[in-house]
Write a structure and sequence with these properties.
Elements (H helix, E strand, L loop, with lengths): L3 H16 L8 H30 L12 E4 L5 E2 L6 E7 L4 H9 L1 H9 L4 E7 L9 H12 L4 H10 L6 H10 L4 H9 L4 H14 L6 E7 L6 E9 L4 H17 L1
Parallel strand pairs: 3-4
Antiparallel strand pairs: 1-6, 2-4, 3-5, 5-6
Helix pairs in contact: 1-2, 5-6, 5-7, 7-8
Length: 259
């Protein structure tokens, strides 16, 4: 691959040559030398364009330290979409994380509208409370999973992110009232920390993928014979732009179609 300095030099030289009048060359030898240089630059530029195109297709996932493509079996995690959707996306999220909130507000709605609702994408949530900096995130994850017992995981998920500063236990129990949940069952689930083990399992799974912060996303092609199995091959780190997600998902859809 050409290094950056050569690429910049090549571009500058092409520009200088393109604006210099041909008649300025005083001899046929000079003209021949210029034409040879132009031909070489065209080759370099063609290679640069090819590399840039390949770079545009490749998600930022590949360079994530600690991440390796792997086969994953999923159970119990809340998800949106068709169970057998072609592509599976797994988000590792922290309810107290401002970047997770930004992804929820700015990117997730379009992914749901364009990919989940069309049956192309299964969107899975896994809990990743970063306890060292977010002391209330574990309780929020517990609340979301307790709401999942009553079929209201995503309602609680949305309500928590819409009220991200209200994550104390009384706030979470008030959210259950707002959602019309069986509050006795919810409060018992939350007070007993029913889902502490599942959350710790999610944290361990995240570390296995190389998750070091939130949000983090792993994506892959769903096994057509078993929707609980996914060949995870891509990693997106952080609250990236919608374009990054679209590019990654579209690439996986293309790969799945090609077989």
């Amino acid at each position: 691959m050409k290094n950056i300095s050569k690429i910049l030099f090549a571009g500058a030289l092409v520009l200088s040559i393109s604006v210099q009048p041909v008649w300025a060359a005083s001899t046929k030898a000079e003209l021949a030398e210029i034409k040879a240089a132009q031909a070489e630059m065209q080759k370099d530029l063609a290679e640069i364009k090819k590399l840039l195109k390949e770079g545009a297709r490749a998600p930022a996932a590949a360079a994530q330290p600690g991440f390796k493509p792997s086969d994953v079996t999923l159970t119990d995690a809340p998800f949106k979409g068709d169970a057998g959707a072609t592509v599976t996306l797994i988000e590792f999220s922290d309810y107290q994380c401002p970047f997770c909130s930004r992804h929820y507000r700015e990117v997730m709605p379009t992914l749901v509208a364009d990919y989940v609702e069309s049956g192309k994408l299964k969107y899975i949530m896994r809990e990743n409370p970063i306890l060292s900096i977010h002391s209330r995130a574990m309780g929020a994850s517990q609340a979301a999973l307790c709401a999942h017992d009553q079929g209201k995981y995503w309602d609680m998920h949305n309500l928590i992110f819409d009220n991200q500063k209200q994550l104390n236990v009384p706030d979470l129990k008030a959210h259950a009232v707002t959602l019309g949940l069986d509050t006795a069952a919810f409060d018992s689930c939350l007070d007993d920390k029913k889902y502490e083990k599942q959350i710790n399992d999610d944290l361990a799974a995240g570390r296995g993928f190389g998750v070091r912060g939130t949000p983090a996303f792993v994506l892959g092609i769903t096994d057509p014979d078993d929707p609980n199995k996914v060949r995870v091959s891509q990693f997106i780190n952080g609250a990236q732009s919608l374009d990054n997600f679209q590019r990654t998902i579209d690439q996986l859809l293309e790969e799945a179609e090609e077989g």
